[in-house]
Amino acid sequence: MIQRLLGRSGPEVGAVGLGCMGLAGLYGPADEAASIRLIHEALDMGVQLFDTADAYGTDGDSEKVVGRALADRRDGVVIATKFGVVRGPDGALLGVSGRPEYVRAACDRSLRRLGTEPIDLYYQHRVDPDVPIEETVGAMADLVAEGKVRWIGLSEASPATIRRAASVHPIAALQTEYSLWSREPESGLLSLCRELGIAFVAYSPLGRGFLTGTIRSEDDLAEADVRRRHPRFQGENLRQNLRIADAVRDLATAKGVTPAQLALAWVLSRGDHILAIPGTRNPARLRENVEAASIELNPDELERLEAMVPAGSAAGDRYPSKGMAMVEPAS
Questions:
Q1: 275 burial class (0-12, 13-18, 19+ CB within 10 angstroms)?
Q2: Cβ count near 281 (within 10 Å)
Q3: pTM over the 0.90 mark
Q4: Choosing from 27, 56, 102, 122, which is the catalytic residue?
Q5: H/E stretch holding 151
Q6: Is 56 a catalytic residue?
Q7: What is the rounded distance in angstroms from the CA atom of residue 153 to the CA atom of residue 169?
Q8: What does each C-alpha distance from 29 to 23, 40, 50, 211 come to in angstroms?
């Protein structure tokens, strides 16, 4: 797999990592033993970056699975986790917190669940509008100084926030949604990350699975699947968005690759500082995603993609209103 740097001071890792949100049951029931096998298969395929968060599950379920799977396989592996999204005991979203005391407490809880120290890459999951970013990043920098964290990152942060954060401590990575149907980072985030030497880690690079072409109606999603609450997967929005999935499928067929591989190859083509962390629970889909790192798109193919799926094509917001309120603008 092609290697890319996690920031100027970070390590080189494979350009395609594994997003582990789905291992917490947020896309339907998850099986821990199967999840651990999947992570081991990912290691065998050359995956090095495993991304989780304390908010994935009702009690850090994803962190626990990742920790157990990688307990004796830490060499060359980068575990990334996040804090800041506060959930209640029932999993209900309560808000965000970037208070320094919360940062420290959240880190200690994640360390216990992961069963490892240090955390390789520690992100602020969402920016707290009520706490100056300098205070939050200052607390994260203290964790680095204490040896609890190696590198720090931000998620869904605006350019202004990123600049302020970087003035306090080097930021290794910015994690933000980016795919053929979520193009907002192109308005300034991608170029800013290149300027500051920050790796851009694209989450949901397959449009939460929609760009694979396997979701044709709401009935294709399990009752417990969080995507049922996302506007792009509902009603008329979903029907309009099928045109995007169909365009990706047609171009992928012409190239002799799968829709998922085309969508991932496109994301990786947008800059050599970009990595992608697609999630899956299926070993065959995992291999498909990993192999996408070796696919190159020529100028004609990129031009056709741009013409068929231009920026702003997707119908509906990428999160429900409460989720969108937690995302800083990309420009």
A1: buried
A2: 18
A3: yes
A4: 56
A5: strand 149-155
A6: yes
A7: 10
A8: 9, 20, 20, 22
Report whether the peptide linkage leading into residue 118 is cis, meaning its omega lies within 30 degrees of zero.
yes
- pLDDT tens-digit readout, 267-288: 999 999 999 999 999 999 999 9
Cα distance between residue 164 and residue 319, in whole Å: 26
Report the sign of the C-alpha dihedral through residues 115, 116, 118, 123, in that order: negative
Lowest mean pLDDT among 1-10, 31-40, 126-135: 1-10
**Which residue, chain included where needed, has tokens 């053929």?**
180
* Contact assessment for residue 208 and residue 297, using Cβ atoms and an 8 Å cutoff: no
β-pairing, 149-155 vs 173-177, is parallel
Write down the residue that tokens 């800083």 correspond to.
328
By the 10 Å C-beta count (0-12 exposed, 13-18 middle, 19+ buried), 141 is classed as middle
181-206 burial by CB neighbour count: b if 16+ within 10 A, else e?
Answer: bbbbbeeebbebbeebbbbbbbbbbb
